[in-house]
């Protein structure tokens, strides 16, 4: 990897490890997060057991989504990205941007519609960091040999027409 890709790799690695940490936190949470309590506006003990189970399951599912998304990106990062695959240099930040974009949307929605203070500023910061990684990476560039690949393909087709 060149220096720019190493910087992007490090940025994406940190973002994925942060996602794993959030996932583990949400999976290990025996109740909802403090900002969820504030958004609900009712004491936890006053909620029925069925509603408590559903809310905890939603938090656990969010944790599983964080872990799954981070693990998927880590696999792309550790194998094809490190091997210089252009598609991975574009796919890793794309998946991270989409996932964190949804996180921003959901947490901002909670902040706007309730008196809760979810960590939406963190989502903005993470999106900026991911974008910085993409701009730093060579994934934003056109591959050097793309013209050669087109010529090889055209020559192959021409030869097939002549012999066919």
> How much of the polypeptide forms β-strand, as a percent range?
under 5%
Low-confidence stretches: none
**Gyration radius from CA atoms, angstroms:** 22 Å
Tell me the count of domains. 1
- From the spread of the alpha carbons, the general shape counts as elongated
Number of strands: 0
Supply the number of helical segments. Answer: 6
Structural class: mainly alpha
Transmembrane segments: 7-28, 58-79, 91-112, 118-136
Keywords: Membrane, Transmembrane, Transmembrane helix
Q: Which terms would index this structure?
A:
6 helices, 164 residues, mainly alpha, 79% helix
Outline of this structure?
The chain is mainly α and 164 residues long. The protein has helices spanning 3-28, 34-40, 49-81, 86-113, 120-136, 146-163. The two termini are 43 Å apart.
General description of the model:
Keywords: Membrane, Transmembrane, Transmembrane helix. The chain crosses the membrane at residues 7-28, 58-79, 91-112, 118-136. This protein has 164 residues and is mostly helical. The chain has one domain (3-163). The protein is built from six helices and no strands.
Task: Reconstruct the topology from this structure.
Blueprint lengths: L2 H26 L5 H7 L8 H33 L4 H28 L6 H17 L9 H18 L1
